[in-house]
Structure formats: C-alpha cells, structure tokens
Amino acid sequence: MTGVPDLLDFDELLTDDERAVRDRVRAFVDARVRPDIADWYDRAEFPVALIPELAELGVLGMHLTGYGCPARSAVEYGLAAMELEAGDSGLRTFVSVQGSLAMSAIHKHGSEEQKQHWLPRMARGEVIGCFGLTEPQSGSDPSSMTTFARREGDTWVINGAKRWIGLASIAHIAIVWAQTDDGVRGFIVPTETAGFVATPIAPKMSMRASIQCDITLTDVRVPADAQLPEARGLRGPFSCLNEARYGIGWGVIGAARDSYETALRYSLSRVQFNTPIAGFQLTQQKLVDMAIEIEKAQLVALRLGRLKDAGKLQPHQISVAKLSNTRAAIAIARESRTILGGNGVAAEYSPMRHAANLESVRTYEGTDEVHTLVLGAHITGIPAFRPSAEGAA
C-alpha cells in the first residue's frame, strides 16, 4: 500500500466535479512536473514552457468569474493548489501570483475597461502579471512602504523599490502599490515602461524552481487610467493577499503529502536487519503521526473552502489555515527526510526540497508571527501590534 490512507474518508466529502478537478491536475503534475522538477530545482530554473499548458489546464485565475476566467469553486481551486504544490511550491506560487494576486487585483479593483483588456489574456497565459507590494524595508508592515506615486497632469510618476516579487522578470505587467497624496493606491504598470527594472534574486536556498525579484522604479510614468479605481488604502492589496493565503492553506498539504508518500514508499522497500523499515515501531509512529496531520490539514482547508464558496469566509479563519497547515507541512517534510536516512539529501527524493521551499511559504503572505497575532487579536480583542486601521481588516 502507498499513498495517504484516507483515514477519515475525506474523498466522500468532495463532489464528483471536485474530485475530477483534483485528479486532472494531479495527472498533469505526474506527467509534466515530476520527471523534471529535481533538475529545474538544481538549475534554479522556472519551467516557463509550462505556462500555456497551465492555462489550458484552467488554473490561471481559476476561481474568478467572467472575462474568460474559469469560474471554478473555491474548493476546486484549493484542490488544484494542493496538487500543484505536490509537484513543487514554485509551481503553485506561479498560479497564485498570476491568479490570486495580479488577476484578483484587476478583477476586484479594476475598471471595466481594465478587466476586459487584461483578464482574458492573463487567463490564457498570454500576459503574465506580478504583484509589487513588499519592499526592502517593508514586509509585515506594508503601511510603511516608501514607494510613491505623484500625479502630474494626465500621468502618474512612480518612484521606489520592491523586493521578493514573484515572476517580475518574466511579467508583462506589474500591479504596483504605492503611497500617494490620497493614501495607498494600486497601478497597472507595463514592465516595458522606462524606469522599471526587475532583477532576479540569486542565489537562493529555497524556491529555486521559481522566480523572485527586486524591482526598482525610477520615474516610471504611466497614464492616469493605469490606476485601479476601486483600490483605496491597504484594503486593496490585503483583499488580494487573502486570496493567496487561502490557496496556501491548501497548497502546503500537497507538499506534505508528497513528502509523506515518498517516505512511505521508501520505508516499504528499504530493508534493514532483514525487514522493511516500515515494519519498525518508530517508523510506523512517524508515518501515523504524519498521516493524521495531513488528514487534519485537509479538513481545515475544506472547511475554509466551503465557507468561501458560501461567501462567509473571514480573514482570521484564513490565518488559521496559513499558520497551522504550513507549520504542519514543514514538520512532515522534515520528518519524512529522517525516514530516508542519508538518501534524503539526494535530489531524486522530494522531502528536503519541499522542506526548503516551505520555509519561504512559511514567510510570505504573512509570517507565523503575524498570523499568530491576527488570531490573538481576534480571540482577545486586544491587538498586540499596531497595524493601520485599514490593514487590520
């Protein structure tokens, strides 16, 4: 027997359509990602050639409706994120940056003209977007951003810097968040605009099969209609971040499950002292503990998905999944590596790669500390940090 035992009959909680989406994305990952991911990771290469196939798979802007977007449910998107991250966190991150951040920003806050112009091409993978919020000195506290957009007649002039911006060096447009005289606003900035420079960050010890960049904006001039008209204050970017955090709550389960499955298969075939190591009590305890944590994480994610599809999901509930599921996934990846022994450091086995990736996932879209304090404030009614009134929403 291999794979995660469905200890709680989780599949029975899914509809036929949900299982079909999951199985289709899983088959794609098995065929197009697993054979090459170790090499991509080793060479620090993001598989750009897969972008049209991901579009054909229907996972770009998957949960968005209209404008050529797939209009799948939140649960279906979550299941797809889980299967993509079972391949590699970098793959799920690409889909998240494109759909949950860049496309969501336009879908939620853009004008009708902006939506019509950009979203169909982004859903087809013809236009790649990135999301410029984090700055070199502004991560957990985006209210302290220093990037500034100044209005000059019929144009905006943007100056500043962003850091750890996924996809920026291959993106066609950047959603750039900047201070203005009227507070934080968002702008659609074509990356070919003079003064926009994206530089991949290297070397990296994590997310190697992914792209993260530094961005500099030097007198970047865009027309007045580049502004996202419905995004005012930090509620604009935070609404997009919540979309991405939701997907992470599902995605990390895929990394955990793949680590577990790798360790289980190995333990059944690795013979020591004339018996498979899966027959030893300590190994079985590790496998049982990991399987239970995966089941629990799936139930948390599914609960959030059902709430989101019902229009009832609250930000603090997203923090539960981002914090708990990511923390569990890292522990599972690390424990899986111990079952592999010395072979666990070889690239042909996934747990150590997943563990390294998950250190980045643990940090982006809100650190453990930030999500802990979000939940602490919700439980006690007393904020232990001082975000802006807008950002706390």
From TrEMBL:
Enzyme class: oxidoreductase
The EC number(s) this enzyme carries: 1.3.8.6
Span of the signal peptide: none
Family: Belongs to the acyl-CoA dehydrogenase family.
Entry protein name: glutaryl-CoA dehydrogenase (ETF)
SUPFAM superfamilies: Acyl-CoA dehydrogenase C-terminal domain-like (SSF47203), Acyl-CoA dehydrogenase NM domain-like (SSF56645)
InterPro entries, alphabetized: Acyl-CoA_DH_CS (IPR006089), Acyl-CoA_Oxase/DH_mid-dom (IPR006091), Acyl-CoA_Oxase/DH_mid-dom_sf (IPR046373), AcylCo_DH-like_C (IPR036250), AcylCo_DH/oxidase_C (IPR009075), AcylCoA_DH/ox_N (IPR013786), AcylCoA_DH/ox_N_sf (IPR037069), AcylCoA_DH/oxidase_NM_dom_sf (IPR009100)
Pfam entry (one): Acyl-CoA_dh_1
Pathway: Amino-acid metabolism; tryptophan metabolism; Amino-acid metabolism; lysine degradation
Superkingdom per UniProt: Bacteria
Domain Cyclic nucleotide-binding, chain residue ranges per copy: 84-159
Organism, as annotated: Microbacterium salsuginis
Catalytic activity: glutaryl-CoA + oxidized [electron-transfer flavoprotein] + 2 H(+) = (2E)-butenoyl-CoA + reduced [electron-transfer flavoprotein] + CO2
Cofactor(s) this protein requires: FAD
